[in-house]
Amino acid sequence: MAGNSSSWQRDEYRARLLNCRSLLETLRTMSDAPTEPGVPHLTTALTGPLLHLESHLLAHQTGIEAWLRAQWRETPAPFYASVDLRNAGFKLAPVDTNLFPAGFNNLASEFMPLCVQAMQSALERACPDALGVLIVPESHTRNLFYLESLATLAEIVVLAGYEVRIGSLLEDLSEPNEVALPSGKRVLLEPLIRRDNRLHVDGFSPCAVLLNNDLSGGVPAILDGIEQPIVPPLDLGWWRRLKTEHFTEYRRVARQFAELVDIDPWLIDPLFRNCGEIDFKNRDGEDCLARNVDELLAEIRVKYAQHGIDREPFVVVKADAGTYGMGVMTAKSGDEVRALNRKQRNKMASSKGGHGVQKVILQEGVYTFETWTNPDNRESAVAEPVVYMIDRFVVGGFYRVHTGRGVDENLNAPGMHFQPLAFHQSCNTPDPEREPDAEPNRFYAYGVIARLALLAAARELAS
Amino acid sequence: MAGNSSSWQRDEYRARLLNCRSLLETLRTMSDAPTEPGVPHLTTALTGPLLHLESHLLAHQTGIEAWLRAQWRETPAPFYASVDLRNAGFKLAPVDTNLFPAGFNNLASEFMPLCVQAMQSALERACPDALGVLIVPESHTRNLFYLESLATLAEIVVLAGYEVRIGSLLEDLSEPNEVALPSGKRVLLEPLIRRDNRLHVDGFSPCAVLLNNDLSGGVPAILDGIEQPIVPPLDLGWWRRLKTEHFTEYRRVARQFAELVDIDPWLIDPLFRNCGEIDFKNRDGEDCLARNVDELLAEIRVKYAQHGIDREPFVVVKADAGTYGMGVMTAKSGDEVRALNRKQRNKMASSKGGHGVQKVILQEGVYTFETWTNPDNRESAVAEPVVYMIDRFVVGGFYRVHTGRGVDENLNAPGMHFQPLAFHQSCNTPDPEREPDAEPNRFYAYGVIARLALLAAARELAS
Fold it and tell me: ipTM more than 0.90?
């Protein structure tokens, strides 16, 4: 209980310096020596309402956390999730909630202990007696980025104290396939075997199945009617979920929350409309879509005027189910929908299963005014935060940084490329002594809004 | 899900470099510029059995974690704890388990998020509905190190999402007293008020009471019969706990664990004897004590011979109850007990309450063969690890580094001074690819043994 404060601080600095030195060594060996590090910053003068929002979240931290605790008691959090946020300076809102997250490899390695601890809580709640866990991943065997995420996820579960194997749904996988990854990690995909109503891989009978496959194409027969617990449940797959249902729940959550912290719910909630079924190829439903685009734009204009925002509204049109179902388009008028050429319409109609008719959601486009400056060429790039949660805990996040895209474009479009930029501070240590927009405080705000989306997903599952 | 792996690694390095630069700046401003950082290393050739132990723990990680999960389901972990370990190279064992830990300020700041998350789990389990938490601390108002720990503990609870106030037991505190701390933090001590059977501080009615006072002097009347939940329970205070009971439970835990990982339980368990009551001043019980010292030394000699350890055994004599109760002595023969002079006997008899008669425990002395080299003067110092847990989670630790003491001396004696050296790696991310004694693996071993002591404390509480 005693000690010399200034000398222990020196020790702490020394230990950190050791890490720094090995880091500097690593940097020397890298071909492209950086000139300057950096994190994204807001490049808009319209930060008044956001600072207002961040200040409100900081001021209400205890109330927010207590409210969230009460919500989780009523509706337990989904097993895990990642939430894409957009930060417009005047507005901070979720635009997509993924309940089978990939991208774990993009989290800062220093938050691995946080992931491990949260995974222990999540698995103890979901499958108290489990010893062995079988991960059922996406069937993206050539996507090394996905496989890196899978390797990291498996590592988290191993470190949480479980035996882990990976059982692949790939039909042409007849024997175990070990893939060497760019990080130096290896991932072993094994053929999934069903015996009666239990899943196995060769020589391993797991107590529980951890699903990391969003089931966009439906529930494969091999997973149907399994007696082992499957987390998250099959019903959370995109074969059944609809974005409109999620954002309907989110709207309720946002209203309750806005009342708690006394803000306009629109500051955290993107407006949306549901447009029924559209056949882009045959132009069925096109008029309805165009009309709804105009109506939604009108709604946004009202809110922009109310908050004094001098920007042109836009909407995003995307599939109501799934992430890979169809193209994504942005529109600043209904006429843009009518003016789509054949190629563009085919792109919008492209889907995993090849169906021509699809449900779509029209969502208020939220500008991304966070930009990151590339230290090599001083070019600016748009940055979109993604927040990761395991159980009810925010365990980290990263920015999707995309140099070739505009502030009003979708940063998670199929086939897109981005540079991930890990959050190097946690989302659970806000510092009220600093500016509302200081990194730990901005990340706290991200963690709060992401958990509101998580709560909406929990209510989807419960409803 | 896409991205360029090598470039995001660069981004990660850049972000870390930013931290390094500010660190280097800080170092430049410190008067005593270090020549080299470092962590303690083992300075003994007798590491065979320990490497054996560490290798065993790594190889059995999944089994160990599953076993611990089952134990916590049966006997929930205490609210929080710190465990003093001694690492003799050939043996790794707990020597003290504190259920009202101080020293939170000595943990590395990068593990704050881990503490926050574990505190959320702990408080949600202990008091699901709590909004406001009242901390009842030790009454060490002049011990700035204790107050730094208290400030950090309060910060963890605030960040976990609770309103926090500190209610002091100090009888002469008639109004709130804010103390400025060397770290720049401030801590506000307020007079504790009891109204009927509820505790308050002015204007704050807490839902739960978090005790950070080890109750060495008994349960103060103001805490007796309170209707708010008190965590940890009053019964875990030193007024009621005995080290011999703890180590009796620990012996059982160690035997069960040793069977699981197939080792000699002695490698993790210090032998001990209970010597009834001793009156050092009047030399009552001295013969019994001396005889037991010799018998315990003989037992240790047998184990040393069995494991080929060429060291002289020693025993530690300390109070069976409390941490401040009496002096601590080491002895290499029973005659040393008989040869104590009056001054030494008075020191051994000195106790908080002033009683002359005390229960003592004789414990096998475990050599500390971890040493840390001071980069300023190249002097070696003895280092003793202390591991911190909140709920069942290991949240960090530090080394007590003491330059003036020998490998066989007590490093936590009353009035002693040490330099804390924070663990900069977590205890839950072992790396089987590295040497069993690499830092994350050694820390994993520490985390396992500390949790065995935590389990023994849990069983004390349950019995």
Answer: no
